[in-house]
Task: structure prediction
Amino acid sequence: MPDSAFRREVARKFQTYNGLFLELPFEQVREDGILLPLFARRCADELARGRSPADIVERFFTDHGPSDRTLYETLYSLLQLAERQVVLFDAAEDAAYGAVYAVDDPQSLGTTLARVSESGRTKELVRFLDDYRVRIVLTAHPTQFYPDEVLGIIADLSEAIRHGEVEKVYELLLQMGKTRFRNRRKPSPEEEADSLLWYLEHVFYHTLPEVQSRLDRAVTLENGYSLRPATIELGFWPGGDRDGNPYVTPDTTLSVAAMLRDAILRCYQRDLQELSRRLTFPGVIELMKDTIDRLSITRQPLVPRYGDDEYGPAGCDDLSARGFSSAQELLLRLEEIRSTIEREHQGLFVNRILDLMTRVRIFGFHFATIDLRQDSRIHSALVQEINDGAPPEDPRDVLGSIRKAMRIREHNGDRGLHRYIISNTQGAHNVLDVLRIAEYAGFSGPAFPLDVVPLFETIDDLERAVSVMEELYTDRTYAEHLARRKNHQTIMLGFSDGTKDGGYAAANWRIFRTKAALTAQASRRGVALTFFDGRGGPPARGGGNTHRFYRSLGEDVSSTRIHLTVQGQTISSKFGTREAATHNVEQIVSAGILNDVFPEDIRRLDTDQISILDRLADDSRQAYLDLRNDSFFVPFLEEMTPLRFYGRTTIGSRPARRTGDATDLGTLRAIPFVGAWSQMKMNVPGFYGLGYGLDQAIMRGDEPALRELYRTSLFFRTLLDNSMQSLSKTRYDLTRYIAADGRFGGLWSKIDTEASRTIDLLLRISGRMTLLENEPNMRASIRLREELILPVTVIQQWALQKLRSGDDDRERLEHIVVKSLAASVNASRNSV
Result:
């Protein structure tokens, strides 16, 4: 839809409710509500004239600063106000999701299923769905600055705005004005898990069954009734992701698994209680009562035993044998109830039983599948000690993780935890190490029922991936393990470290080429392949349009099973409401269907096109490496950006760095790396090197071929469009003052030149007049969000400038920088 739809449904409503917000009976809000827009206008005007943020802040507040507050107090107060305005904008945009975004577009599931039917390819769809799985894996990566209380306000505000409930909006704005926007301390891994449980219970529990039922109805004749395995699944990393997080222990994993199990059983209990009010028929009511009783025992099998002791229970009776031993057993009981209703009661209310059966098929007794993840170097050190014959020191308790995994499988089912991911996989020995450790822990051969998943992250790792997998496929020990896993291999590819390591274009192209090569290799060996994509929010970390990404891979890349990580703002923006979640889940599901059932839609790249993209990626990587290897690159990050302040935020349990040399980029996690560039509005990982690569290709005479690629190749078009999204969030006049810096001026100018060149060439190759010309809603959203946080970024740069100048008030300046991080990240929604 055109820009006017966004203005009408989002911008105007935001302006209306923002006016209401600024009229709240809080003196400071009213005062700052007058000051902030004046300051924002001054920022835009003065940056355009070449003024530095330090000059802008000092000059403006000399003229307009409140006399009863210090400059620091005023700036901090403005940051608080801007932060709350971002919340209101988020809520307004969420409320307008269905009106602004085309939820019934050609890529929607409804349109896709209709096309399948009309083209007579239902048999192909039935065959494909036998194996097709989509798993959305929620991670606890720290890219979300909203505490739980604020997320709840956003959800309630969105609903009130959607229904035009002005009084309720006003009450929620009052609540927001008094609510703390920062956690008092970093959350524990258990608290991170508990926070994400809100989405599982309030969003995914309702939306995934709806999508699954639509798939079922498309391939069955009995009103969607099916006992086939569910197509859509959930994954969960909080509590199991131990890579670089010393606070995740084996007991943490066990605790989170218990939380997930209890949450899903509680949901089933609630649904069964509701159903029992309708299913009151003879022969059914008795089954329902027994099912509710058994499920209650399943959830709480230990019952206090009271004897003669007047002071309390003498012990507990274990009634677990009377409960349901598995989700499959519960499903069979529900099938008994369904068939009884169909046979004896004319199918009355049977759809409600079918809905619950669909939920049990999807969520089992585990709700979401926990993945274990650990760094390969931890395994290597442990294996060395085991091989040396000495009692191994296991400070990270890898052995304990494996033992607890087996307990989780007993309680939550096989789907509760079934894979072990190895970060920093550089060779086949990294995978075999896990099998050796499992053997030492007492789980060799069939007793170790976990998929071992190599994670290839850096460019070098990606280039080695095929040879690593070939060595594994031909290794007797691993081949036997893989056979026990039904020859199903999962391979994880990480965008974040690939981009940090080799730049945007090289990482994306190398991942595409690696996937195609691994797909062909697995096909030759009769291995069923699952690609698990470690995708972040922004294009710099594999984000962007998810449907287009998977659709663009075509038939050369296995998409029978699509697994991807989702985190931070991506969870709240794409899956924070039922409407948004349904749309985005459908988009992912339809991508795989279209790739398999309509492979002719995506034109394969020919040999010449592949050669062009190979050279473009190589040139782009070299340009990026020239920048990254510049002697001022790491000092620029450490001294000029807010990188060092990420560790002081209270948004996640995981440290900003892995252990190791603090000056080594390899130990720096991708989130703070990308986030630091985002805070500077420079977004280097989302474009740098691409412009140089395009320029070199044009000089070789490849411009007509590049234009044709943009027109015909969805992969190339998505690559360029996602980079346009990154560049749409840049603002180099914010940091132009660095050009005059004696140490870093050259580096800044180099980046600025590449940004300008990349924008010019993206427009030239795409034939567009402006960035994101074909994405008007996204362009409008980005523009308004960037306008909202312009004062925030100027204040942040002012504080950084003052800190570098040696200002004595260091503590308050640092406090300003830390406070400014949140509004900037939250406004961008996918900035880190």
The chain has three domains: 3-116, 125-144+185-268+363-601, 607-828. The domain at 125-144+185-268+363-601 is CATH 3.20.20.60 (TIM Barrel).
